[in-house]
Amino acid sequence: MRATAREIGQAARESGVKVPTIRYYEEIGLMTAPPRSDGNRRLYDDGHVRRLRFIRHARELGFDIGPIRELLALADRPDQPCADADRIARSHLDAIDDRIARLTALRAEIGRMTDCTHDSIGQCRVIEVLADHDKCMADAH
């Protein structure tokens, strides 16, 4: 059975990835360059569209290009153990947890800053805290 060939616009619609992004993925090696038609147009098959969907979904989940490249290489070897894929996902999860902790601290600090009962800028807690980091509760944010 022959794979369905489609031009880049159709591949973009089916995968949810914009045409310039598809070209960029080819440029950086996430996608192999597809064969070309007699008219020199790129022709994408079902495998290309699946790969584009994989990349799009990984990007939606916040994975950076490097880990996506690693995950794609692993996906190309389905008979291998999944320990490396788990390691990549766990590392990403750790980064998400760290980001959540920093955002939670940031939210608390901004909330504390905006708890201002004064009427003038000269006594405004927001301005006061922004002018003097020592008045922040957190050392870093």
What can you tell me about this protein's structure?
The chain has 141 residues and is an all-alpha fold. It has two domains: 1-80, Multidrug-efflux Transporter Regulator, Chain: A, Domain 2, CATH 1.10.1660; 84-141. Helices cover 57% and strands 0% of the residues. It has six helices and no strands. The protein has helices spanning 8-15, 19-27, 46-60, 65-75, 83-113, 125-131. Helix 1 (8-15) packs across helix 3 (46-60). The longest helix has 31 residues, at 83-113.
Keywords:
single chain, 141 residues, mainly alpha, Multidrug-efflux Transporter Regulator, Chain: A, Domain 2, 2 domains, 6 helices, 57% helix, 0% strand, elongated
Short description:
57% of the residues lie in helices and 0% in strands. It has 141 residues and is an all-alpha fold.
